[in-house]
Amino acid sequence: MASWQVGSAQLHKVVEVEFPLPVAGALRTSDAGLLDRYPWLAPHFAGPDGTFTMSFHAMVVDTGVRRILVDTCIGNDRSTVPALPALQTGWLGTLTALGYPPESIDTVICTHLHFDHVGWNTRLADGAWVPTFPNARYLIPRLEWEFWSKHEGAGSVGATELADTVDPLFAAGLVDLVEADHQVAEGVRLEAAPGHTPGQVAVVVESQGERAVVTGDLVHHPVQFAAPEVPSPADVDIAQATATRRAFVDRYADTGTLVLGTHFPDPTGGRLVREGGEVRFVVDRD
């Protein structure tokens, strides 16, 4: 698992599953040559056959005082998406082996409520869905909950079954509905990133003069930093999502901020740099 040090905080990527996709599989475009126009994407984010690897992973933010989990992937035993068979992975064991057993997590942040970000919120035990992280507060953006509680499914590419992934958390009294600028802990805060979904947030980690941002799904692929007008298939509001990506680039380009893409495969982290009138995602390590 990849890890990063941000001041005194540690961030760990915990992969559930990865698989190759054609560019049109993760981006709403018919331009098969889109990735070819940005040579800096290779080799990590553009393959010679026009595909790239889509990663589904969570991010642990360990401040030394708090153990925070950002998003919880797809989860086992779920068949929300017909094209994706129900998974049986060792993700929870991987998290435990890393030193973070479920009981030790004190906060779970749901950047938004699409199926691939809330799956391990709960797990199947004796035929019932129960909270996976029983000692955690689950933070859900208030606007996000208000939207999906009225539009569950709604034909969305990222539709989720709230009855399985979120309702058991409410029943257990573990949910905090929070605002988009919520201060999670010292040095950890939410930042509004609407468009992909109405209430989506990114997660900002700041410590000892260093900063990292976990993107959520404001981007699915680094090419969207250079071409923010290219939407993702599940973007609810394309115009808003485009504006959010542009604002993100304006805010963080040339600042040295570590950007951690929620669906980026290894090396996952990089910095936004302006060169020759173009924005590039420069990987943090090779």
UniProtKB/TrEMBL annotation:
Residues 55-263 form the Metallo-beta-lactamase domain. GO terms for molecular function: hydrolase activity; metal ion binding. SUPFAM superfamilies: Metallo-hydrolase/oxidoreductase (SSF56281). CDD domains: metallo-hydrolase-like_MBL-fold. The keyword Zinc applies. It comes from the Bacteria. Pfam families: Lactamase_B. Keywords: Hydrolase, Metal-binding, Zinc. InterPro entries: MBL_superfamily_lactonases (IPR051013), Metallo-B-lactamas (IPR001279), RibonucZ/Hydroxyglut_hydro (IPR036866). The keyword Metal-binding applies. Belongs to the metallo-beta-lactamase superfamily. This is MBL fold metallo-hydrolase. It comes from Yinghuangia soli.
